[in-house]
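protein under study:
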Amino acid sequence: MESEARFTLLGPVSVHGPDGPIALGSPKQRTVLAALLLNADHTVSDDRLVALVWGERPPRTAVARLQVYVHELQALVGKGRISRVGAGYRIHIGADELDLRLFERYRTAARADAEEGRHADAVARLRAGAALWCGPALAGTSATLIDQERPGLEDRRICALEELYDAELASGRHAEILGELHTAVAEHSLRETAGLS
């Protein structure tokens, strides 16, 4: 059964519904959505959300404004998706609805392929995972969220690229990926673990 929605964090924060892209509001509202998606199916406290949206100096009205952002998001993505849990909120999403979850599933499956010597399959999965990235992660959200969360996401992407090039090299595709390797090293300063320096 096809998912009703697609949530993206690996680029501009966005939502696509059955009828196409859903127009999200301000960067603050996108930050609330992104913070919930990064912790999907877990509760994020009001205090944490306020800190991510407004940084160290939130306005006195922050909690009330947070409630407005959540109410608007519920109207956009479905009231049943975002629920109040204690002193926080939780978003409920399906296994195939969030690009970050799909990316991690591709990586996990690719590792199993590589361990079994199925390097071509590992390459295919890792390339599918890499294709989910469409720009800097968490674009369109607050500086606080980006500062705290983007480095970890970028580290995951670089690790996946290292795994991809390891699998490509194990497949004997040295010459075919040479140009891509040089570009990746220049763009991402990949670590020596992949033998790329």
